Amino acid sequence: MGSALGVALERAGHVVFGVAAISDASVHRARTRLPDSQILPVEQIAQRSELLLLAVPDAELAGLVRGLAAAKVVRPGTIVAHTAGAHGVGVLAPLTEQGALGLALHPAMTFTGHDEDIDRLANACFGVTAADEVGYAIGQALVIEMGGEPVRVSEEQRTLYHAALAHGANHLVTVIVDAVAALRSALDGPGLLGQPLIDEQPNGLPERLLAPLVSAALDNALRRGGAALTGPVARGDVDAVAAHLSALESVDERLAAAYRAMSLRTAELAKTNPALLELLAEKGH
């Protein structure tokens, strides 16, 4: 994420003089994406920065901030922005107490380390949290410069904001991976003339089957909300859902349990057949 944001800032006219990179992959991305920047220890970058961007995993942020504060390498007046979704500006207190201006700028986007990371920033919203209106104005300007859309998130709602994004994006991947696994089992065996073989590699026939369907379902959900629900659960079809559970249990009991849990939530949203709700609530689930 850090190198992608660095490219966006460079394109906006900022000088990205230094990057801290530890792993081989992050060093490669830094050298490829930001060839004019030096790879330096974070303390040296902090000493020279007017804008210090901390793009580290959520769990590592507090320790990094404490270390920088203990080393007293961040000058008063430096803008220190982090990209962790779960944190607001409170985690930056050791540095703001020394005169830094703290910002939380979280891009609501998934990053995989590939080239598309940079292009996706242009369509991303950023959750912006600051301590005051001056901070919000600076954060908003930085996000707009990077091509994103700033969205204000209060400090006290930061965890809920992050939980919502994780639920929508991370669990979507789990659902798709499970659906692909079930399809691989369903399609195993002789196919039609010219039909690709079913194997364990991604981007195969199961994914091809799912892609138009799930893309349309996602688009409908974002456009129409709960009215986009279709299928046997939304219709309250007890027999069809019971047959699904039986078929999935023959493949993977954990997959069937996930289907049951998601179906129960879907049935609650759809306010569907009480008999279906009873079926889905069975077996202690």
From TrEMBL:
Source species, domain of life: Bacteria
SUPFAM superfamilies per record: 6-phosphogluconate dehydrogenase C-terminal domain-like (SSF48179), NAD(P)-binding Rossmann-fold domains (SSF51735)
Classification via Gene3D superfamilies: NAD(P)-binding Rossmann-like Domain, ProC-like, C-terminal domain
Domain DUF2520 as annotated: residue spans: 125-266
Pfam families membership: DUF2520, Rossmann-like
Putative oxidoreductase/dehydrogenase Rossmann-like domain location: 2-107
Protein name, as recorded: Putative short-subunit dehydrogenase-like oxidoreductase (DUF2520 family)
Taxonomy of the source species: Bacteria, Bacillati, Actinomycetota, Actinomycetes, Mycobacteriales
